[in-house]
Amino acid sequence: NAGVTQTPKFQVLKTGQSMTLQCAQDMNHEYMSWYRQDPGMGLRLIHYSVGAGITDQGEVPNGYNVSRSTTEDFPLRLLSAAPSQTSVYFCASSYSIEGSAKNIQYFGAGTRLSVL
Amino acid sequence: AQSVTQLDSHVSVSEGTPVLLRCNYSSSYSPSLFWYVQHPNKGLQLLLKYTSAATLVKGINGFEAEFKKSETSFHLTKPSAHMSDAAEYFCVVSEGGTYKYIFGTGTRLKVLA
Fold it and tell me: Of the candidates B42, B98, B106, which has its C-beta nearest A98's C-beta?
């Protein structure tokens, strides 16, 4: 099992450019999520999905879009990048069984994004 | 509403001395609590988890944490720090065993030779 795979590892964008951060998992997890990590702020939830075709907003969704067409993939789209989106982005996945001890999130290695 | 507070943003210890990283939580229902570690330029790795079984939880690399409901705390400890423990540590709460995580702001552990 590869676990959670994120691509690219690094990216530099100019203000106004668009791009897609890729995330794939091979554990058949229902739940997938995107976080951004900024210094002194921990990880903040951007968007999440509890299964194919189902997505919802997290704490900081503005400027980001997601879709979930398959169980395995959960791409994050920046439609018009802004310097405030400079951050490290993490994708995570887990089971989503209510009250279950199996609901442990597994994280990808992250994507470092700089917007100039 | 859930929240988690990591009481120290930076902790420095000497190699071989005990480690204490403090975490307090707020949760309306039975929480699940986690500690994750992040080494520089790496992803997050699960250290340990509490999910309403034993209140003293043992994790990897000699770390353990004790769930104290009366104090709403879940502090992380290790008897003897090693240089390789230098990293950032995150306390995480999820409510009622759900899959939605709330992260603390992190504690950066420095280990001095």
Answer: B98
